[in-house]
Automatic annotation (TrEMBL):
Domain of life (superkingdom): Bacteria
UniProt keyword Iron present: no
Domain ABC transmembrane type-2: 24-258
Membrane topology: Multi-pass membrane protein
Subcellular location per the Swiss-Prot or TrEMBL entry: Cell membrane; Membrane
UniProt keyword annotation of Ligase present: no
Similarity annotation: Belongs to the ABC-2 integral membrane protein family.
Cited InterPro entries: ABC2_TM (IPR013525), ABC2_TM_bact-type (IPR047817), ABC_2_transport (IPR000412), Nod_factor_ABC_transporter (IPR051784)
TM annotation in the entry: 26-47, 59-81, 101-128, 140-164, 232-252
Protein name: Transport permease protein
Length: 260
């Protein structure tokens, strides 16, 4: 365990050094996130109706926070596939280091990146007029739920990156982020969708987190009688744990089988 943590931090430092020396990808991620928030808040927001009334920007920003966690899957896949295609992963596997350090270091680095992007997006939301009306404890819990979701998505990204192995496949798989993200309650209430599609959107793990943090932030939310919506905070805990239980062992197993 000691060497796993030490080697994992070494891999994390490697990623941080990459960001310092090549900040383009980090800056693009920040700019893209802010741009999407501005587009929905100012260009499309005027045509959106919030259930029960209220400012659409206050309704939007919790959805944007969760979407930012989802979009991180693509960056994780890209980094993993890039190391595989360049032979870096094979080099790591050939030197005396903890086998779990590569995946552990990747997950820590991506969590640091996620905290930074979430901070920028929250500052952007505050500038747009969004604010948390919940208690300090509820606000901290909302942020913790977002980061828990991101941690689960990291392991989906690691597994998909290991499966893809090259940038072409990663690009193809990244396109799935958009239908998964839009088929949720992040931008519009599921009640505006056809009933069967709204049900799918409500059971999207992203929707549970979005609904939960809207409630915790005291922002306008959706009114629904479904069990999944009424127990959003519970499911915002359950969904990430289920995803972790599935994709963490799959990612570890796939990593061990890379050279076979």
């Amino acid at each position: 365990m000691k060497w796993a943590l030490v080697d994992g931090w070494t891999i994390t430092r490697r990623e941080l050094i990459h960001w310092v020396r090549e900040p383009g990808s980090v800056l693009f991620g920040v700019a893209f996130t802010v741009l999407i928030a501005l587009i929905f808040g100012y260009l499309l927001g005027g045509a959106m109706n919030v259930p029960g009334g209220g400012d659409y920007k206050a309704f939007l920003m919790p959805g944007m926070f969760a979407m930012n966690m989802l979009f991180g899957i693509g960056s994780t896949m890209t980094a993993i596939a890039d190391d595989i295609s360049k032979g870096v992963t094979d080099r790591f596997r050939s030197i005396p280091m903890s086998p779990s350090a590569v995946l552990l270091g990747r997950s820590i680095a991506d969590m640091i990146d996620s905290v930074m992007l979430l901070t920028v997006l929250m500052l952007c939301g505050l500038a747009m007029g969004w604010q948390s009306n919940g208690s300090a404890g509820d606000t901290v819990l909302a942020i913790a739920l977002l980061l828990l979701l991101r941690f689960a998505f990291i392991w989906i990204g690691i597994f998909c990156g290991l499966m893809a192995g090259n940038q072409a496949m990663v690009t193809a798989m990244q396109t799935m982020e958009f239908p998964v993200g839009f088929l949720s309650s992040a931008f519009i209430p599921p009640s505006t969708m056809p009933s069967w599609l709204g049900t799918i959107a409500e059971w999207n793990p992203l929707s549970s987190t979005v609904t939960a943090i809207r409630d915790l932030f005291g922002n306008p939310g959706i009114a629904a009688d479904s069990w999944i919506t009424q127990n959003a905070v519970l499911m915002a805990l359950v969904w990430p744990l289920v995803l972790l239980a599935i994709f963490f062992p799959l990612a570890v197993r796939r990593y061990r089988r890379l050279s076979r």
